[in-house]
Amino acid sequence: MHLIYKKQTIIGASLVAFAAALWGMDGVILTPQLYNLNVWFVVFVLHALPFLLMNLFLFKRYKYFKTLNRVEIISLFFVALFGGAIGTWAIVKALFLVNFKSLSIVVLLQKLQPVFAIALAHFFLKEPLKKNFVFWGSIALIGGYFLTFGLHLPHLDHNKNTVLAALFAILAAFSFGASTVFSKKILLKLDFITATFYRYAATTLISFIIVLITGHIFDFKAMTQHNWLIISIIALTSGSVAIFIYYYGLKKINAMLATIMELFFPITAILLDYLVNGQRLSFIQWLSAAIMIFAIIQINRSETKS
To answer: Which residues span the domain enclosing 280?
Structure first.
């Protein structure tokens, strides 16, 4: 029995780490190569293509929608709005703004997601804040600041795009955190596969309405063969496939171990940003990143304790 448990833990941890590494690769290598396209159009295509593929295997999941009550449907809408539409738009916008520079900083700032998720759960779901959350949350945010700017004050004239990219990355972290909060209600009724299917469906609809209103629905004609290749790779790796891998692995391990394995996300991003783009963090940025991640681990450790 012990060997079976250990094997399941190893498998689960490996899958979570693999999914996290795929997301790190996406942020540095894949998504930035779509810079020639409108951001909302990218969000639409990145959800529409995987959703069409899901329909080939998950079309029977539509029947579960009628089991949802009004609160659950609203929660599903907010999951798609924040976790799908706004969150993806914000992080893609951030990656485009830095123009292949400081990509790892943008990716690292996403790790602030648990801070926002726990704070929002406190305000909206009335979940009590665990001991020392304010302290470690503040440390994480301070670490995020020095990760972005080092020991210098932000100068809008010289690094406007860096400042904006950092703000968009934080908006993405906030949005993904909000999505986590609203997901709690959905996952009480639906399994993660069905919930993910509905999330992609709703996000596709939301982003379609946005590109239709803004006139970018016709941007398909602006897509190059390279754009199609990158989007196809994302759909089959770091898109919906990575989400399924992540959740399958998450079922086999505890939250604390999952938090450690998720560090493959920023580690992969930093390594690839250096190998592919020649970007390297300064000592202060490395130290700030370490402090920020340590603070987030402490937050997650506190959350796993009753």
So the answer is: 2-304
